[in-house]
Structures are given as C-alpha cells and as structure tokens.
Amino acid sequence: MMRLDHLPNQRPDEHVVLFLRRQWFALLAIVFAFILLTAVPLLIGWYFWPTLEGLLAQNVFGPLLVILGSIYFLSIWLFAFLEFTDFYLDTWIITNERIINIEQEGLFNRTASELDLAAVQDTTAEIRGILQTVFTYGQVYVQTAGEKGRFHFKNIDNPERVKEIVTKLVEEDKRRVSALGAGGKGKVKSVIK
Amino acid sequence: MFDLPNISVPVGAFLIVYGAYMMFYVLYSLFNVYHLLRYGVYGFGLYLLVTIFTGGTIILVAGSTFLLMGYDWAHPISLDNTVEYYNEDLFPAL
C-alpha cells in the first residue's frame, strides 16, 4: 500500500503538493454501462414475467436460467470493479521535487515512472469540447528536455490550475538546483524557504 | 429410425459449470483486491471500496444460492426427451 507521507524513494525535504486522478466524469461511463447492463435484463424479465415464471418453475430450465443469470450479474459486478480499479490506480503525484506517474492498464500491466521537475521544459494544459469546458477537466502535458517524451495527465480536474502549479514548482526546483550547483546544501535550503 | 441408449444426466451437472465460473470469479477478484491493496493509496476509501465489492459479491452469491436451493438437483435430463423434439420434416432424406 502506498502512503502519500512515505513515497517510494522519498528524498529529504520532499513533500506531496498535488495528488491527481482522472476527474469523476471519467467514472460516469463505467456507472452508465453498469446501470444499463443491469437494468435491461431486469426490465425484460419484469416485462415477460409470466413466461419467465413458468420457465423458472421447470426442473431443467429453472436452475439453468438461475445459474446463467447469476453468472451474468456476477460478471457485470466484476467488470465494473475491474474498470473502477483501473480508474482508481491511475494516479499522478506531484511533489516539490518530481512528478510520479502511475498508470494501470488492465489488470496485468502497470507502469510507474518519475521525472525530476528540473528536467521539465514545457507544460501544456488542454481543454477541448463542450463537456470538458462545462465540467472543467482536460489534459496536461509535461514535456521534458530529453528523449523520454512527455507525461500526460489524462482527464484531470482543473488542468489550468495544475499547469500553473507545475510551472511554479519547476521554476522553484530549477532555482534550487542551480543554487545547489553554486553553493552548498545549507544554502539551498535557505533558497527554498 | 434409430435408437439412442437411454442416457440421463442429473440437473446437478450444471453446478459443475457454475463451480468452475465461481473459481474464476474468486481468483480474479482476489487478484484485483490484491492489486488495490498493494498499489492503492492508503486511506479509508480503499477499505470502503474492498468492502463494497465484497458485500456486493456476497449479496449476489447469497441470492443465487437462495434461488438454487429450491430445485431438485437429482432430476435427470434424459437424452430420450431431447429426441422428442426431432422433426422428420427437417431432414426428409434421413
């Protein structure tokens, strides 16, 4: 279990500034699919109840229908939970020294990467379309100087505010790193404060 | 036309399929819960999530068990009965 007050490879004086997940709007697709897949067979069963009741009373079709129904609803429940886990474990942690990107792809693929703030060259916030504008969510791209490419914060809440915070943290970190090069550690601390 | 031996299988055979599915379900769920507890961020929400999932599973399995308990699992599914549905018009050449 990960603790925000005890990050992996946590550095001295490092603290979490932002902890991000995709916005709640991303969950709506899962909730909508879950409700639809649950409600449709229930409504069909309710509409054809006299026929269904007769089938359920039979010695062979009855247990077969109950077993198939049970498998169906358990599968939907499991599917919804798997999708939610995928959403829940996709996180971005921004500290005063680095960005940690943790992405869960399905149940068996997981990518965790980190980036020093001093290596960040450019940050872009992007809000596209009516839904993203109304619900103020969108993308933030963090571009590095090296070949590592860029970090993509997907469908996060308030991307422009996040971009501002990241930009500010990058500036502070660059000042801190350059001060570290110029002087000693004690001097760096005073710069941060 | 031709006689099939009188083979019958108890309805309980369906439970083998159900049992196999439940094994898959339990394995997958445990793996998923392990993932959440291993990589999730420590907090009340994490435990709430696992509790909701487990609770939902218990309700679904308990409901299914309650419905399934009323059936006679020894009731035979006879192969002879399936031939009753055979329609000679479908395959007149036979």
From TrEMBL, chain A:
The keyword Transmembrane helix applies. It comes from the Bacteria. It holds the Pfam family bPH_2. Residues 92-165 form the YdbS-like PH domain. The chain crosses the membrane at residues 24-49, 61-82. The keyword Membrane applies. InterPro entries: YdbS-like_PH. Keywords: Membrane, Transmembrane, Transmembrane helix. This is YdbS-like PH domain-containing protein. The lineage of its organism: Bacteria, Candidatus Uhriibacteriota.
TrEMBL record, chain B:
Keywords: Membrane, Transmembrane, Transmembrane helix. The chain crosses the membrane at residues 12-34, 46-71. The keyword Membrane applies. This is Uncharacterized protein. It comes from Candidatus Uhrbacteria bacterium CG10_big_fil_rev_8_21_14_0_10_48_16.
